[in-house]
Amino acid sequence: MQWLTMPLVPLVIVGGYFYPLLGLVIVGMIAVFMNIALFRGRYFCGWFCGLGGVFERILSKVSLNKPMLPLFTKKWFRWLMFGLMMSLLGSRLYMSGSDPELIGSTFRMMWIVSLGFATAFGLILKPRTWCTVCPMGTMQGLISKNTYLLRVDQGKCKECGICKKSCPIETDPGALKAEGQVPSLDCMRCSNCVVNCPTKALSFGSEQKSMKSMKSMSK
Ligand code: SF4
Ligand code: SF4
Asked: What's this model's pTM, rounded to 2 decimal places?
């Protein structure tokens, strides 16, 4: 699927220079992923995102692939990036008025900014580092807080850490064994960890009461 959606990136960024309406392809994509997110969380990020495909299939060939900096796991940093990117988008859309070409150019500009940040991070760190703070991923995670969560079977998980190594955004499901599930925002539902877990401890499903919350309820 990523190979199919990746051509959208040069189409919008290069083609949009000559034909700004191509930027509206991104509006269509947002509509698609917001609908998918209602049922499958950040599934779009894991399987369909053209930018994610570029990072995972092309940038990965030249990336130094160093571990992500702790900064990218901090909630405040995700919300800072979200605030900055959405303010930029909102102000540019306000200035665009109702001109479809200016609106298309605005969305194209957002992709250029995202690609610039993502390439800078991804050349040195994990290729999909940007996906930990991408505002589009954050939007999907927000509307799918309890949907299709990655669950950790507390009886089967041996905390071996293989899931973290196989995760493109370094999420560590094994470390969340006590919670029993991974927060929606932190998982792109790509299934890499599910297929690599040696004890088959991972699966997707709806929210469940964690061991921690059950204990606090029984007190
Ligand atoms: S790979 Fe499986 S067993 Fe290992 S830490 Fe992750 S969930 Fe637990
Ligand atoms: S936690 Fe697993 S399913 Fe979620 S993004 Fe990482 S590898 Fe993919």
From this structure: 0.88
